[in-house]
C-alpha cells in the first residue's frame, strides 16, 4: 500500500532507492551491521509483539506498522519516521504490506557520541524542550542522505570511508527537522536525567520504584524528571517501568517456561491479580493462555515472545 499522497516527490524517490537496497540486502545482516542497520522484510501482517528499541532512527519503507509506546498508539508508514533517543519498550506489529515489496523496514543505530559531536558543531542548538509528535516528517535532504546510506550496501568496500561521512550528514539533517529535541535527548553528557533514569529502571526493574524514589536516586526534582522523560520517550517513568516489566515477564513465561506467578515476582509485581490485569490489557489474553499459545508457535519456529518486526 503506497502512502505517497502529498509526499514530496524528491522524498518519495529517495525512499524508493532505499527500499530497493533493503530488498537486495535484507538477507545479508553482516553487511547491514557494518552500517549500523537492522533490516526487516515481512510478507504478511503480524500480531503485536514486545520489542526493545535502542537509540535509533526507525523507518518503514513499504507497508505500515502499528507502534504502541505508553499511551501513544500510532499506525505509520514510509511518510514518517521515528526517533528513539534512549532504550524504549514498544509493542508493535505489521498492519499492512505493499503488494510488490511486502513490509520493509530499517532501523539505524543512533550513536549518542556522534549526535553530541554534530550538535556541538552546529550553532544555536539548545537543550530539548517542549512537546512534539512522536512521528517525524521527512525533508528532501534527510531522505537523500538516508538513501545514500542504504545504497552503500551495494558498495561494501566503500563503507569504512563513506559510512561515517553519511552518518554525520544524517544526524545533521535530523537536527534540522521537527525531531531535533528528541535526537538531542540521546546525548547523556549534557542532560543525563533521562538516560540515567532509563538505566536504573532497566537494571533494577524488580525494585518497588515510585516517582519520588526515582527522582531522588538521580538527584533531580519530580517535575523535571516527569517532563524530560515524557518528552524523550512519550511515556512517564512509571508507564515505562510497567511496559518493561510486562515485556520481560512475557519473555520469562514463553522462553524460560516460568509460571505467571514466578515471572510476576521476578519483574517486581507484588500482586498476582494486578499482574494478570495489566498483562491482559496489553496482550489481550491471560498470562497462562498467551504463554501456551506462544510456546506452541516457538516450537514451530515462530516468535519468542519478545521480538517482532525490526523497525
From TrEMBL:
Pfam annotation, one family: HTH_18
Coiled-coil features, chain-numbered ranges: none
Keywords: Transcription, Transcription regulation
Molecular functions per Gene Ontology: DNA-binding transcription factor activity; sequence-specific DNA binding
Domain HTH araC/xylS-type, chain residue ranges per copy: 195-293
Family annotation (InterPro entries): Homeodomain-like_sf, HTH_AraC, Tscrpt_reg_HTH_AraC_N
Name the record gives this protein: Putative AraC family transcriptional regulator
Organism listed in the record: Actinacidiphila reveromycinica
Lineage summary: Bacteria, Bacillati, Actinomycetota, Actinomycetes, Kitasatosporales
